[in-house]
């Protein structure tokens, strides 16, 4: 007799674009992606502004309201006994306070990237999760793509020899007239009060590729925190508009170069005609990953002895034909479900210790670029009545 899938009951914290994409993926039939062991159900949605906003969210994601509780505050959501896991989809300026609110309520948490604003905040979240004995994971969806898994396996198997360098770029072309950027200054991408800037929003994907190859695949006994060197250009709002980061692992003789910009796109036409977004370079060849870095669907293997032959591997993201949707965020949700089913408190694909190291690198890079965020969003002191938790302005 077939075993029924382990179903996770999700509580959705925030109702913006990323939350809409995540929930639409949750609602896709797992069979579409050949998954039968886990499933997902949305049981509650919360907006910090009003219950009406939560209700409007259901319409946008085409989710029937029956059985879904709507809340006008985050505190109500995290105290709902029917919620197994809270998905934190607020701006990353709010992640520490919002995720901590859920953890303190004893909830499992999937928190959007960037995990926090500072490494200290990330450490406090990890500490709280351990104290409460609950699951915690940073939602770096790209890590859980079958494409990413296959590439890590190829590198680990020695398919391109010893890898010594990874170069990754995740940039968007939003250059405007007279030195401006086309985002208004209050937009979260450039708003310093919302921890805006290229690195925390876009550059983390570049770093994801560096870390999942150069750091994650290091033997546990030889884990090495990298040295960080950054070049940062600030925008008029104080946020970074362009950041280039070199991470060096001296003991492993490896180097990663992470690039990100709000002005110049990775590829001008958006069709990768300018080449790969990621290059993983080894002694026997290289793997080229076609962009965008956050949602790649193709990679190429080029061997030194291939006589010019290039192996092209397509990894399309399955679409639920009934719902006419498939973004690729469902794979990270499946990982959460399996971890919860198996009693794990973190994911081995992105351990919490690794999220902390990545936050340390980003914090150091921004420090070198003299990017300074307000104390309200860099504090590592949890306040359940913080404006980030209450929605107060």
Topology:
Layout: E1 6-13, H1 17-26, E2 38-46, H2 51-60, E3 69-71, H3 74-78, E4 85-88, H4 95-104, E5 108-112, H5 119-132, E6 136-139, H6 146-157, E7 163-169, H7 198-215, E8 227-234, E9 240-249, E10 254-261, E11 278-282, E12 285-290, E13 298-303, E14 310-314, H8 330-341, H9 352-368, H10 375-378, H11 387-390
Helix pairs in contact: 4-5, 5-9, 7-9
The first-level CATH class name of the largest domain: Alpha Beta
Which descriptor suits the 3D outline? globular
Taken in chain order, the helices and strands follow as EHEHEHEHEHEHEHEEEEEEEHHHH
Rg, Å, rounded: 21 Å
The biggest sheet, with number of strands, parallel, antiparallel or mixed sense and barrel status, is: 8 strands, mixed
Count of discrete alpha- or pi-helical segments spanning 4 or more residues: 11
Please tag this protein with its features:
393 residues; Rossmann fold; single chain; 11 helices; six-stranded parallel beta sheet; alpha/beta; Dihydrodipicolinate Reductase, domain 2; eight-stranded mixed beta sheet
Description:
The mean pLDDT is 95. α7 crosses α9 (352-368). The strands form 2 sheets. The protein has an 8-stranded mixed beta sheet, with helices on one face. It has a 6-stranded parallel beta sheet with strand order 3-2-1-4-5-6, with helices on both faces. It has 2 domains: 6-140 and 377-390, 3-Layer(aba) Sandwich (Rossmann fold), CATH 3.40.50.720; 146-316, Dihydrodipicolinate Reductase, domain 2, CATH 3.30.360.10. The chain is built from 11 helices and 14 strands. The N and C termini lie far apart (55 Å). By secondary structure, the chain is α/β, with parallel strands linked by helices. The chain has helices at residues 17-26, 51-60, 74-78, 95-104, 119-132, 146-157, 198-215, 330-341, 352-368, 375-378, 387-390; strands at residues 6-13, 38-46, 69-71, 85-88, 108-112, 136-139, 163-169, 227-234, 240-249, 254-261, 278-282, 285-290, 298-303, 310-314.
